[in-house]
Amino acid sequence: MARRRKRKSRRRQEGRRILEHIPQFSLESGEDKPVTAARKYIQSEGILPPALLLVKRNEHTTDRYFWAEKGLFGAQYVEENHFLFPSLKLSTDEPALATR
């Protein structure tokens, strides 16, 4: 029996394209849980939103978080609901201004 392909959400693809233009930071979680490691890293480095944090949990798993003015969110949620984040709207307008 043939397997059906999973349908890709246009809204999520658009969100993923928007997140590609956001600064990314990579770190390892170490002994902490991934969210705690991300929060500690933001605090220690003084990272300003918007930013994307890639937290390596182990050799196979990497968790993605989005740092916004409203707090820390899972990157998948932000991809699907990018229109709820004003900082992403500002960052998508910038490339359009540069091409003029």
Number of domains: 1
Low-pLDDT sequence parts: 96-100
Level of helix content?
40-55%
Distance between the termini: 52 Å
The residue-averaged pLDDT reads 88
Q: What's the total helix number?
A: 4
Category by helix and strand content? alpha+beta
Order of helix and strand elements from N to C terminus: HEHEEEHH
Global geometry = flat
Largest sheet descriptor: 4 strands, mixed
Strand tally is: 4
Radius of gyration: 15 Å
Provide the spatial order of strands within the biggest beta sheet.
1-2-3-4
Percentage of residues in DSSP E strands: 15-25%
Could you please describe the fold and organization of this structure?
By secondary structure, the chain is α+β, with helices and mostly antiparallel strands. It has one domain. The chain has four helices and four strands. It has a four-stranded mixed sheet. The C terminus is likely disordered.
Keywords:
4 helices; 100 residues; disordered C terminus
What would you say about this model in short?
The protein has 100 residues and is an alpha+beta fold. Helices cover 41% and strands 22% of the residues.
List the helices and strands and how they pair.
Layout: H1 10-19, E1 24-28, H2 34-45, E2 51-56, E3 62-68, E4 71-74, H3 75-80, H4 86-98
Parallel strand pairs: 1-2
Antiparallel strand pairs: 2-3, 3-4
